[in-house]
């Protein structure tokens, strides 16, 4: 993965909590095989590749649920959007994406507020 302009300047990539849920049902065993082979299994392959590239930091499937939950690192909202669109089941799932603030970043913000309130 090439360095982004932000990374070259020493800025950290953003982290996002991503949930993909829902998806197609199956009318027949033949349809299930088709969807599994053409969409779902290639999507798992894409997610595994993103894990190996350290773009997905952690994640998995809630037991018994038809959903994907993971924390991903991306240089921007656009970078994340492009990444998600490359997952074969992108158009078949409902996606919820939440940008995450770092613990250190939030702690610094709260310390600044405390400092201002004490004046």
SSE inventory with pairings:
Layout (H helix, E strand, L loop, with lengths): L4 H4 L5 E8 L7 H24 L3 E5 L6 E8 L2 H9 L8 E7 L2 H15 L2
Antiparallel strand pairs: 1-3, 1-4, 2-3
Describe the structure concisely for a colleague.
With 119 residues, the chain is α+β, with helices and mostly antiparallel strands. It is 44% helix and 24% strand. The chain has one domain (5-117): Dimeric alpha+beta barrel (Alpha-Beta Plaits, 2-Layer Sandwich).
How would you describe the overall organization of this protein?
The protein is an alpha+beta fold. It has a single domain (5-117), classed as 2-Layer Sandwich (Alpha-Beta Plaits). It is built from 4 helices and 4 strands; from the N terminus they run H-E-H-E-E-H-E-H. A 4-stranded antiparallel sheet has the order 2-3-1-4. The longest helix has 24 residues, at 29-52. It is elongated. It starts with a helix and ends with a helix. The mean pLDDT is 90.
């Amino acid at each position: 993965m090439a360095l982004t302009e932000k990374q070259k300047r020493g800025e950290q990539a953003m982290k996002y909590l991503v949930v993909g849920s829902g998806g197609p049902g199956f009318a027949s065993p033949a349809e299930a095989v088709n969807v599994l082979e053409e969409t779902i299994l290639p999507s798992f392959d894409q997610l595994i590749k993103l894990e190996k590239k350290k773009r997905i930091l952690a994640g998995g499937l809630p037991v018994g649920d038809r959903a994907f939950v993971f924390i991903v690192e991306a240089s921007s909202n656009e970078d994340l959007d492009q990444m998600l669109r490359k997952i074969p089941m992108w158009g078949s799932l409902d996606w919820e994406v939440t940008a995450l603030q770092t613990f250190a970043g939030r702690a610094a913000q709260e310390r600044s507020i405390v400092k201002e309130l004490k004046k």
